[in-house]
Amino acid sequence: MITRRRLIAAAALWPIAPAAFGQTRRLTCGAVTPRQTEGPFFKPSSPQRNLLVDGRATLLVTGQVLSRECKPMANALLDFWHADEKGEYDNQGFRYRGHQFTDAEGRYHLETIVPAEYPGRARHIHVKLQPPGGRVLTTQLYFPNQERNEADDLFRPELVMQMKTRSVGAFDFVVA
Ligand SMILES: [Fe+2]
Asked: In angstroms, what is the span from residue 143 Cα to ligand 1's centroid?
């Protein structure tokens, strides 16, 4: 019969067991962030800025751009655009549009508002991401626990932000 003490000892040894067997497990940052359609409202040449709102930001999204080996990617371009408080896009000007570059640790931060829903779609934020010299990744970020998520054919659970509060979200991009 295995004593309680023996079980604890076995559990303590377990985490180092693969190393003891010489297993070389490559550290990965998980699956590459899925691509999504850019939709009909992308506009090139957005202003460079982290803050997309004239007044008070009510949503902060932070995260990193990482390689599959978890290496932070500095100077990656992130171009965000999303709908306004009424679920409409500004196609004349650049409201709720802006691009930025990741810092030395691959970090970005976006200060904006929570976009309103518009017909046929779950609440989302569009983004185009490009590491220096790399391929453009176009995708969309979603909010958790939204009634419309499951009804939206484009919705992907891998693209849901982690919301620490209603106004503070996080998402790490993994690029090939
Ligand atoms: Fe959209």
From this structure: 13
Q: State which amino acid sits at residue 32.
A: V
Q: What is the pLDDT along the chain (176 residues), one digit of tens a residue?
A: 444 555 444 444 444 444 444 445 556 788 999 999 999 999 999 999 999 998 899 999 999 999 999 999 999 999 999 999 999 999 999 999 999 999 999 999 999 999 999 999 999 999 999 999 999 999 999 999 999 999 999 999 999 999 999 999 999 999 99
Strands 59-67 and 168-170: parallel
The phi, psi pair for 24, rounded to 5°, reads -105, 90
Q: How much is the pTM?
A: 0.84
In angstroms, what is the span from residue 82 Cα to ligand 1's centroid?
A: 6
Tell me the pairing of strands 168-170 and 162-165. antiparallel
Ligand 1 mean position, distance from CA 90 (Å)? 11
